Structures are given as structure tokens and as C-alpha cells.
Amino acid sequence: MKSYTLLELCQYLGGELQGDGEIAIHSVATLENAQSGQITFLANKKYQSQLQSSKAAAVLLSPQDASLYQGNAIVLQDPYVGFARVAQLLDTTPAAAVDIHPTAVVDESASVAEGVAIGANAVIGANVRLEPGVQIGPGCVIGQDCIIGENSRLWPNVTLYHNVHIGKDCIIHSATVLGADGFGYANERGHWIKIPQTGGVRIGNQVEIGASTTVDRGAIDHTVIKDGVIIDNQVQIAHNDVIGEHTAIAGCTTVAGSTTIGKHCIIGGMVAISGHMEIADQVHLTGRTMVMSSIKESGVYSSGTPHMSNRDWRKNAARFRQLDGLFSRVKQLEKAGKSEQNK
Question: Pathway of this protein (predicted)?
Fold first, then answer.
């Protein structure tokens, strides 16, 4: 287990040391459960009550909270970001694969760079290019003409159809499928005629895609996920979507086809975005929002109904069904009132 002194971590983060810089830190933990040798953080005032009783070896604190704690600490502007960086430094996650397993099937036309690791029962198709440092987990299938950039990691049972390109330093989690056919059909007198999906998928650098997520290939042009995007588990990205740089998409969200989402957007869980939409940069959609038309200005948008007691919900649902009738009655009353005024 690797460890660092508190002084080394302080220098790494560019913070201000408080207390003993020689203590060794080997892992991260929560305020409530931290023990000797572990570092924690305080970023939410809701947890201030746990600060004094914490058994952590050290705490990451903001300048505003530093006076509340007399123990070992690193003081920096954003303790949560500091925690993320220390967690990366102390990360003990194993590799997705080590070396090339003898049961892996690698097509003779594939280009496999030095240092690539391929797990048991993985299949690497024709004309695939795996760049240095790539890790392909057990059971993965990499289709024809795919490219995977330096140091990208695919966890077990990821499937890439043909013509999928992944950039550098990406993480693709288990059971995710990239490049399956988009939902493209024409209807001829009640019969569905499949439209071949001849585009590909293009994923930028430093993208992370969660488990059991699907990114469909483009119908003609590519489906594009740009640099720095993070996508949660069980998300559906349809054909020809374009997701802008550093956008975050939470679990169970669905984005219909030919939609463009801008940069630095935050899409909450279970959001539904209709097709052929444009979402501006820096848009925040709260959970369960349904987007039925383009959003042209940055800001926070919502449409999901917060929970309430079942009794209140039943009353409100009944009143919702009455809205059209109430609207007609109000219009009639307004019309009658104007008539009286004109007499």
C-alpha cells in the first residue's frame, strides 16, 4: 500500500499545512469512519458536527472552516476537489487486464502497441488499433476498424461494434455497448423498413462512460461525444447525437436522435430529451425533466413533479384533468366581464 506524508500531499495540492507534516497517509475515508493513516475532508456544513469526533489522521478544510479544527489539516480553497486529487493519488483500483491472456483472440491484422493488456476471452477484430497503455478487460469484444487511444481502459464485457474510435485516457465500464445500430426505420404502409446505420461513434479524450450505457452509431454521420464528458450508468445516447465538452449526464437519462448538447451542461437523472433538439452551453436540467423543444439560453430548467403524499397527489391529478374546463370558464368570465364594462 503506497503512502505519502501530509507535507507531500500538501505540496501536491498547493495548500497550507496545519499540524504535523510527517504523519503518513495511505488512504481516504469519510469524516465519520476515518481511522489512523487516513485523510478525509469537510466540504458540506451539514457534516461539521462530525469534525471534532473524527479519528482521521488529517482533514482537508476550507479557510472558512480551518478555525474549527485544531488537528492535522491541509487548508485549501476547495476541499472536495482536493479530496478527488488525493483519492486519485492513493487509488488502489486494479488494472482491467494484465499482459495478453492466452485465451484472448486477436485478429492478425490488428495493431497492438507495446504495453497493451488484453484479458481472458476478449476478442479483437480486424484492423483494430490499440495504442500504448490500453487495457481491455475480460470478455470484451472490439469490432472491426475500431481505434482505442493511449491509456484508455475498458472494464469486462464491453462491446464495441465496428468503426468506433475512443480517444486517450478514457474509461468504459462493464456491459456498455458502443456503436449498436440507431433506431432508424421508414414506414411503408404499416411495415417497418430498416435504414442501415452506416455512421460510427467518435469519443474524445478523458471521457468516462458508466456501466450498461448504450451509445448508438450514427445513421450517416457519426455520433460524437467530445472531450471530458462523463456519463453515468444506464444512459441511452441515440444516433447522431453530439455531446459537448465536459458535460455530465446522470443515470437513466435518454437522449433521442440528432440532438446536440452544448459544453459544460449538467443533465440530471432520468431526464428525457426529444430528438432533433439543441441544448445551449451551461444548461442544467434537474432530475426527471422532459425536454420537448430546444433550449437556447444557459440556466437551470426543470419539469419533474416533486413527491407528495398520495392523498395530495390524487387530488392534484384530478384537478389537472379539470384544467382545460377551468380555463374555458375563466375565458368566458373574462368575456362576460368585458361585455359588462362596455355597457
Answer: Bacterial outer membrane biogenesis; LPS lipid A biosynthesis
